[in-house]
Amino acid sequence: GLEKISGDIILFFTTGTLLLPNVLKMVDDCFDETYDVLYGNCVLNDCFFNKYFLSRPLPLSQLKSCGSVFNTESTFYSKRIVENGFLFDESYKIASDFDLNLRLYLSKYKFKYIDKEIAIFQLGGISSTEGPELFKEFYKILKKNNCETKHIKRVYLKAVIAKRLKRIKLFDLTIKLYLIIKPQKNEDNKVEYNISKLEKEWL
Q1: Residue 148 CA to chain centroid, in angstroms?
Q2: What is the pLDDT of residue 38?
Q3: Whether 67 contacts 92, CB under 8 Å
Q4: In sequence order, which residues have a C-beta less than 8 Å from that of residue 121 and are 6 or more positions away?
Q5: Are 178 and 130 within 8 A, CB to CB?
Q6: Percent helix, strand and coil across the chain, each rounded to 5?
Q7: Torsion 172-101-144-108 (CA) sign
Q8: What are phi and psi of 11, to 5 degrees?
Q9: What's residue 84's pLDDT?
Q10: 9 Cβ contact partners less than 8 Å away, ≥ 6 residues apart
Q11: Of 85, 67, 80, 89, which Cα lies nearest the Cα of 151?
């Protein structure tokens, strides 16, 4: 599908994603030839407990040790990446987006962060419910690219133990465990989000 794209900007719109009002215009205004990837904040919908959390990206440098540091649902790509041969590696069933982003980062493509909410993403898919498999793919991708693996290995082991003991809820497995893979502490990365301010924009 990527090879048939005719537009200049690409968004991978996954199941359970809702793009927020006026985002496309904002992205069109912000995206220029200087950058290859533009990414923002994502509102996570915890459908198990009917809560919303604002997910801000981690520092981009942590791609080399922590797995995904921003949400694909809030990320736009220049068509140049496809023209230069950067496609999804379909051997990864869950983390092919991370693999793509890491390869782009290591190849010195330019990323730009905008501190705006881009989309609402509903948790509950395979990346939310199969924590150990997700972290296992992160580990394989990091190792393949000769990156640091000790942080993600630790999280993978914790996720396996948590799943086997069934003491941690699915949301904790994918959000709270994920946060400990950061080398430095960042308390503002995931905070509970008041969805009412977005609802007012839709009404």
Answers
A1: 19
A2: 96
A3: no
A4: 14, 16, 17, 18, 42, 43, 44, 45, 71, 73, 74
A5: no
A6: 45, 20, 35
A7: negative
A8: -125, 125
A9: 92
A10: 27, 28, 31, 76, 77, 78, 79
A11: 67
For every residue of 83-142, DSSP letters joined together read HTT----TT-SS-HHHHHHHHHHHTT--EEEEEEEEEEEE--SHHHH-HHHHHHHHHHHH
User: At which residue do the structure tokens 């898919």 appear?
Assistant: 125
Query: Amino acid letter at 203?
Result: L
Mean pLDDT, residues 141-154 taken together: 92
pLDDT of residue 12: 86
The amino acid occupying position 184 is Q
Higher pLDDT, 194 or 23: 23
pLDDT at 187: 46
Helix (H) or strand (E) holding 178: helix 177-179
